[in-house]
Design a protein that fits this description.
34% of the residues lie in helices and 15% in strands. By secondary structure, it is an alpha/beta fold. Helix 9 (206-217) links the parallel strand 5 and strand 6 (222-230). Helix 5 packs across helix 7 (136-144). The protein is globular and about 50 Å long. Bound molecules: zinc ion (ZN) (2 copies). One zinc ion binds next to helix 3.
């Protein structure tokens, strides 16, 4: 009987699994990727600064020691390189929403979900939300928090200003562009909370830093960043 159940289980696994997202091989894992493709992904190295997740042989890099960001820690999965960069762009701009599941599972293996009280997906301005149709960070956060839905908070913080997309700006302009962008709802419970901000990509970290600053000013006791991929060059 047990054997039969097991057979059925395997049968349905096979039936339901989709081809690898990258090479279209039949045997993809729950992540949607086959093992050889998973092995070849641009995983972040182990030797990273715990605060900004840039390569560093010490626990915290000199940059974070001399000019610390407002966030206390940063967890990422990948370096923002091909093919992760292509998958993230397909997800965001090609509306391939099913990729959210793969990113959520990959993040789940990397981030300390049990140590934070609240997960806040990077807020999107309502105008941009209307244009894109979904908030890419929220969809990943929703799946990541599926079993602890009380941790997900997507309405305490609003993005106030609709400004040029960061991707078109120099890093100096990005820093300026990010200032004073976020507001916290008066009714929100941020005080004393350990908060993770979830975003898909971290480049200069200007938006994450500005949101971390806003959350700290609103009384958060700890803020960390969870990101699918980050660029490895310091701006
Ligand atoms: Zn593959
Ligand atoms: Zn650092």
């Amino acid at each position: 009987m047990n054997k039969r159940l097991k057979f059925n289980h395997l049968f349905f696994d096979g039936l339901l699994s989709s081809p690898c997202l990258l090479c279209l091989a039949a045997n993809s894992s729950a992540l949607g990727l086959c093992q050889p493709c998973l092995n070849d992904l641009p995983w972040l190295p182990d030797a990273l600064c715990s605060q900004c997740a840039l390569p560093c042989t010490d626990k915290v890099c000199g940059h974070c020691l001399s000019d610390p960001p407002y966030f206390d820690a940063c967890y990422g999965v990948f370096s923002y390189q091909f093919p992760i960069s292509a998958l993230l762009q397909d997800y965001k701009y090609g509306s391939k929403l099913h990729l959210a599941r793969s990113f959520a599972l990959l993040l789940k293996n990397r981030v300390p979900l049990h140590t934070v009280d609240t997960v806040i997906p990077m807020p999107m301005h309502p105008q941009r939300l209307k244009e894109r149709g979904f908030n890419q960070a929220l969809e990943i956060a929703r799946l990541l928090c599926a079993e602890q839905a009380q941790k997900l908070d997507f309405d305490s913080v609003q993005r106030q200003k609709h400004r040029p997309a960061q991707v078109s700006l120099s890093w100096q302009a990005r820093l300026k562009n990010s200032k004073g962008v976020f507001t916290v709802q008066a009714s929100s419970r941020i005080t004393g909370q350990r908060i993770a901000i979830l975003d898909d990509v971290m480049t200069t970290g200007a938006s994450l830093n500005e949101l971390a600053k806003t959350l700290k000013q609103a009384g958060a006791s700890h803020v960390e960043c969870w990101i699918v991929a980050r660029t490895l060059a310091r701006p």
